[in-house]
Amino acid sequence: MVIANVSATRNHITTNTNPATDDDEDEDVEKLLEPFTKDLLMALIKKGVSKHPDLIEIVRELANANPAHRKIFIHNLDWDTIVETLTFVFSKYGEIKDCKAITDRVFDKSKGYTFILFKHRSGTRKALKQP
Predict the structure, then answer these.
(1) The CATH number of domain 67-129 is 3.30.70.330
(2) How far apart are CA 127 and CA 14, in angstroms?
(3) Which of 39, 43, 70, 84 gives the lowest tally of CB atoms within 10 Å of its CB?
(4) 91 secondary structure, DSSP code
């Protein structure tokens, strides 16, 4: 039996546990992490990165692979906006992987908004700094 006292805040994690048993070593890490809250996972990763700075590269790789970190939404566009114009304007911030100008299918005109997916997070950050 493991007795643990775990407390986590957004920036810090502390534990007080008994030593692991043989059964604990066989337990799948995915099953251990599954019930963790987002805040607890964030605290765990921050603590891991602080103790093992090389882990930040893995975190960056995963962030770069996730489209949520590379996609921006733009609205209030002119009704005549086309993908080529958007690509030309936003490519100065970084390589664009995908650009979708959302159009009205009936009138074949822009609906005034778009999604741009950059190849790297750096392009997204630059575009958000320089609208």
Answers:
(1) yes
(2) 38
(3) 84
(4) G
- pLDDT confidence of 41, banded at 50, 70, 90? very high
| Predicted confidence (pLDDT) per residue in 85-103, tens digit | 999 999 999 999 999 889 8
Amino acid letter for position 17: T
Instruction: Give me the count of residues in the chain.
Output: 131
Ranges 9-13, 60-64, 109-113: which has the least confidence: 9-13
For CA atoms 74, 80, 82, 88, give the dihedral sign.
negative
| Tokens 């997916």, located at residue | 117
Distance of CA 94 to the CA centre of its chain: 18
- Tell me: pLDDT of 21 over 50: yes
Written in H, E and C, the secondary structure of 17-37 is ECCCCHHHHHCCHHHHHCCCC
Q: Do 57 and 109 form a contact (C-beta atoms < 8 A)?
A: no
Phi, psi of 102 (to 5 degrees): -75, 125
| Ranges for all domains in the chain classified under CATH 3.30.70.330 | 67-129
